Amino acid sequence: MENTHRLRIVIAKPGLDGHDRGAKVVARALRDAGMEVIYTGLHQTPEDVVEVAIQEDANAIGLSILSGAHNYLVGRVMEILKEKDAMEISVFCGGIIPDEDIKGLLDMGLIGVFGPGTPLTEIVDFVRSNVKSVGV
Amino acid sequence: MKPKKTLSNIEVPAYVESFETELTPPGEYPFKRGVYSNMYRGRLWTMRQYSGFSTAKDTNNRFHMLLDKGQTGLSVAFDLPTQMGIDSDDPFAMGEVGKVGVAIDTIEDMKILFDEIDLSKVSTSMTINAPAMTLLAMYIVAGEENGVDPSMLKGTIQNDILKEYIARGTYIYPPKPSMRLITDIFEYCANHLPKFNTISISGYHIREAGSTAVQELAFTLANAREYVRAALSKGLDIDNFGKRISFFFNAHNDFFEEISKYRAARNMWSKMMKDEFGAKDAKSMMLRFHTQTAGSTLTAQQPDNNIVRVTLQALAAVLGGTQSLHTNSYDEALALPTEKSVSIALRTQQIIAHESGVPNSADPLGGSHYVEWLTSELETKAWELIKEIEEIGVIEAISRGVIQTKIHNSAYEHERLVEKKERILVGVNEFIENETEIPELLRVSDLIIKNQIEFLKSVKNKRDDTEVERILEEIGRIAKTEENLFPMVIDAIRARATLGEINAALKEVFGAYKPTFTL
């Protein structure tokens, strides 16, 4: 049995937003930190995102949303995870998220929300200490 | 001591002792010093704030507010469903309606958007790409139904699909039919909308995606060359469509590098148009451009500081000879701008225009050893990169993700430098304050979607569905030929076909673009 299981993270762009600079930079930072990273590409439905995460055996999903549609899209992703009985997959989110929305998103079950200017090391450390690798 | 470099990694000497260069006056080929002889003495740049949110009615109010405050042109931000060619009632539009721009489904929305605005007087820029033909058709019909002839309409449509594949993400169809739609627009507008810029070839989003200034310059001009070739192979005359090509650049943080970038761009374009494509009309050789300050440099931390960043960036754009300018608002790393923040952004331009004295003389930095040297460095490096891309072919390089990877590498490099504090961002990695005051932010209600869908339904209820169906079938038929699609799309708009319906008819023939995503 492997006990040095590498974390598997899906970085996803749900919705119509085309800004993926942040998503790709975070994906690369996580990969450079030794994690397995799958980037979904643009224009994914919440259903697509969950599907990829389940198929890829992901430990976590990182959503990137800069279009202001975060409340709806995060809500949908969480609902579908529940429907698919895949709540063991952690979800975090980054983008243009007003402070007043963060609490609501955490209440939906997100483990973290990262705004503009968050250092990459902070995100990497957060994922390392908060995402559980299955089977350990 | 570490060498000093520009943001594009050009190593800068302690001072440039002297730099010999040939300079012609502004308004003369190759237009390095500016496209007009009297530049801002004749007319200031157009102050054009990109704006749009919620419904057409809310955005129309914002337009009137900006015009009342002395803005001189309009610039429409459409919401993502509109930019992706889908209606507000499409399931994929959920959560996105009216969020990053205004929701437009039919001509009735477009007419409300420009209510009480004289389309024969104002110039309007529309950031619309994949469905550009449909939105321009709506603008034409909005004019028509208010008694304004298309020949009077002034403005710009972005209509630059290549940078969507590269950096911005609102693509629909594959490259070939997308290029055909673009050249159909070139052809139609040359004959019917002579005052309209039919494309705005954009480096802005390439830069926002993380490129350097050199990459912004190179990829923008490489794309431009691709559009010119497409138009020529359709049989259009270079001096017929060439005059209506415009550009859109970023104004980033490295002050002199940005000024030099605009000068280099003019120099390169005029030579490309004259020497390579044989343009004869000087107007076809002039690189006219819009500038927006760099959204990606705005910080969520200590947001008031953004006012200073924007001022410096805007000043660089003016010193570089821009034809129009959008200044970002200080709160845009947090949300869409409020009335207060957008007023400060507009006032910033007005202070530069009317108080600083900068517009009094054209290209005031021309002949500076440093600026001329840097202009030449940027030009040389951009040509090298263009050559590299040309060897693969622009569209092939996009399809393989070659250009995207180069940009992404620069974006990642920037982040690494910021993490190591080799690049200082005030308030982000240095001079940090723990308590930041959050300004009051603009919120777009999730309730507007209900009204928008009801309005769409009411427009559909009042129209002749049989006629709409007939026209949509015609669009499908013409899409399979080489005939110009524009007249039939205008007919569809007149008949109250929706954006989503027209897009669906085209997509059935053209298919959807399937990108490759690289990390």
Question: What report would you give on this structure?
Answer:
The complex is a heterodimer of chains A (136) and B (519). Chain A is α/β, with parallel strands linked by helices and 136 residues long. Chain A has a single domain, classed as Cobalamin-binding domain (Rossmann fold). Chain A is built from five helices and five strands, in the order βαβαβαβαβα. Chain A has helices spanning 21-32, 46-55, 70-83, 99-107, 120-130; strands spanning 8-12, 36-39, 60-65, 90-95, 112-114. The model of chain A has no long low-confidence stretch (mean pLDDT 94). By secondary structure, chain B is of the alpha/beta class. Chain B has one domain: TIM Barrel (Alpha-Beta Barrel), CATH 3.20.20. Chain B contains 21 helices and ten strands. A five-stranded parallel beta sheet of chain B has the order 1-10-9-8-7. A five-stranded parallel beta sheet of chain B has the order 2-3-4-5-6, covered by helices on one side. In chain B, α11 crosses α15. Chain B is globular and about 75 Å long. The two termini of chain B are 34 Å apart. The model of chain B has no long low-confidence stretch (mean pLDDT 97).
**Contiguous helical run count of chain B:** 21
Q: Which chain pair has the greatest contact?
A: A-B, 36 and 43 residues
Q: Low-confidence stretches of chain A at least 5 residues in length (pLDDT < 50)?
A: none
Instruction: Please state the second-level CATH architecture of chain A.
Output: 3-Layer(aba) Sandwich
Q: In the CATH scheme, what's the topology name of chain B?
A: TIM Barrel
Tell me the number of strands of chain A. Answer: 5
Number of domains of chain A: 1
Query: By helix and strand content of chain A, what is the structural category?
Result: alpha/beta
Q: Quick one: overall form of chain A?
A: globular
From the coordinates shown, what is the CATH architecture of chain B? Alpha-Beta Barrel
